[in-house]
Amino acid sequence: MSTYAKIEHGMYEHPKIVGLSDAAFRAYVESILYSGKHLTDGFLDERIVRRMWGEDVAEELCSNDPVNPSWVRIEGGWQIYGYCERQNSKADVDALREQKRSAANARWHGKRNAQSMHSASTVQSTSDAQAMPDTDTDTDTDSVNAHATRLPANWVPTKAHYEKAKELNVDIAREAEMFRLHAETHDRKAKKWNAAFTMWLSKAKPMAQPARQNFFDPPKLDRQPAWKTGNYDA
């Protein structure tokens, strides 16, 4: 995050600034920019001062006002007078950076959560569509443009359903009950419930076929043949 310095429009007209030399005026502005960039809270290391502006300039800035000079000599360097009252301190900048970082993390996690919810919703919608298909393969009393609704309490299979169940050898009473329980348990919604039940029937398991007698097998006799017993009167 970039940092900025606050310079008043009329600073150059201030009594303690207007009399500065060009070098001292430049040093004063540059020192504010330097401290803001490196977050020193107005402290200027003496090595930086000597290399960038020199001690003569530093002395001029320390003596341009008897009460509130632009710089103040302290141990290890100089201090820009009143810096933290006019500029953002290191603590201010750190707090702002943390605030922006937290906001960015919240947006990122919010986006990830939204994507996860969308994916889960898509999976659920796909599952619902498979369990309760909404097709136009059957005549339905619902309007084509109607909104999806829960299964009506008075819904019953149609004549076409009974014919379909007979064709597929499906127990329609059992399948209708299972269809209703599935819709109520999973809170399903559909636009065309009759079409959904037609599809349900097409996926239903047929009833077991009754066992057929093999007419090529000889009948089982409860008594022994006469040629074995010698009783031909029976």
Could you walk me through the main structural features you see in this protein, from its secondary elements to its overall organization?
- The chain is mainly α and about 230 residues long.
- Among the domains are: about 10-90; about 130-205, no CATH class.
- It is about 50% helix and about 5% strand.
- It has ten helices and three strands.
- It has helices spanning about 15-20, 20-40, 45-50, 55-60, 85, 90-130, 160-170, 170-185, 195-205, 225-230, and strands at about 45, 70-75, 75-80.
- Strands 1-3-2 form a three-stranded antiparallel β-sheet.
- Strand 2 (about 70-75) and strand 3 (about 75-80) form a beta hairpin.
- The protein starts with 14 loop residues before the first helix and ends in a 5-residue tail after the last helix.
How do the strands and helices of this protein lay out in sequence?
Layout: H1 15-18, H2 22-38, E1 43-45, H3 46-52, H4 55-62, E2 71-74, E3 77-80, H5 83-86, H6 90-131, H7 159-168, H8 172-185, H9 193-203, H10 226-229
Antiparallel strand pairs: 1-3, 2-3
Helix pairs in contact: 2-4, 7-9
- Structure class: mainly alpha
Q: Looking at the structure, what is the overall shape?
A: rod-shaped
Q: Percent of residues in helical segments?
A: 40-55%
DSSP helical segment count: 10
The portion of residues forming beta strands comes to: under 5%
Radius of gyration: 46 Å
Which blocks of ≥5 consecutive residues have pLDDT under 50?
134-143
Mean pLDDT: 83
How many distinct beta strands? 3
Instruction: Determine the oligomeric state from the structure.
Output: single chain
Distance between the termini: 115 Å
**Major sheet details:** 3 strands, antiparallel
Spatial arrangement of strands, main beta sheet: 1-3-2
SSE pattern, N- to C-terminal: HHEHHEEHHHHHH
